[in-house]
Amino acid sequence: MDFDFSLLQELTETSGVPGYEDRIRDIVRRELEASTDHVTSDAMGNVVGTIEGESDYTVAIAAHMDEIGFMVRHITDEGFLQLDPLGGFDARVLRAQRVNVHTEDGDLPGVIGSVPPHTLSEEQREKKDKVEDVHVDLGLSGDDVRERVSRGDIVTMDQTTVELGDHVTGKALDDRICVFTMLEAARRIENPDVTIQFAATVQEEVGIRGATALGGDLDPDLAVALDVTVANDVPGFDEADHVTELGDGTAIKLKDSSVITNPKVHRRLRSVAEDEEIPYQLEILPAGGTDTAGFQNTHGAKPVGAISIPTRYLHTVTESAHVDDVSATIDLLTAFLETETGEHDYTL
């Protein structure tokens, strides 16, 4: 692969749920300080690295730092933890997973319990899984757990990021793989015609909160958001429901449930991809929102576009993306920014 896989591993394996992005924010700040002119952050924790251009025309590039996770809502007398979700985890994939509980005194390893299927009653077998019903087992007594864990402590999934054939797979590719893409583009760009604001946002998974606030604060002339998108190109789905397919290139978003991208912006993205011979596909996402919506109208009407990385098994610990699609996304974002002069008319 023609990108820094070790940085991608660091970004995806580091914990950071909505509102508690501290650890991932430190990494992003470190990388942006090395590749941009100056770095700022706000009261919510959004981080912005700015490369000053030849003009005052500003382009905001956004990718969210937060991953889905949990908060401890209750500790039983026996020392089991019950959870409140931070983002949209599918409870079906939580059983028998390893987790980390982030306490004030350090991290504790735990497992989400799953009892043997042959011991379940018929009623238990038919019961629909809910996040509120799972429990975390820390292997400690109730007294020890209550001494070390507090209500409100954060819980994240424990997983490594690895190469899998032509894919990379792990947790939190949503959306750290796009944070990585943004950082790679920031490394490559020199002396742009326009001022570029590389924004790592917070709390996207709980309602696009960070980008909405940042859109008002930055007030850019143009915004392009980066996120993963659905790739249901696996057994059990009709071709029309794939949304995107791994290995077919970066995805240029036309719509999702939160935004319809500006036609002039997505047409220019397509034109740049074709001029640079960068493989791409068009994304029409029937459900799910992204930071794109956060910038579209929070400080007046703004032209917005979005580039997505096709990803299988979203919101699990085995999210998977094709290395060629990652490279294509970096290439398209970089080429788009290097050719942005501030003179394109995106009004409709």
UniProtKB/TrEMBL annotation:
CDD domains, per database record: M42_Frv
UniProt keyword Protease present: yes
Cofactor annotation comment: Binds 2 divalent metal cations per subunit.
GO MF annotations, alphabetized: aminopeptidase activity; metal ion binding
GO biological process: proteolysis
Ligand binding (Zn(2+) 2): D174, E205, H315
Pfam families in the record: Peptidase_M42
Binding site for Zn(2+) 1: H64, D174, D227
Keyword presence, Metal-binding: yes
Family: Belongs to the peptidase M42 family.
Name the UniProt record assigns to this protein: Peptidase M42
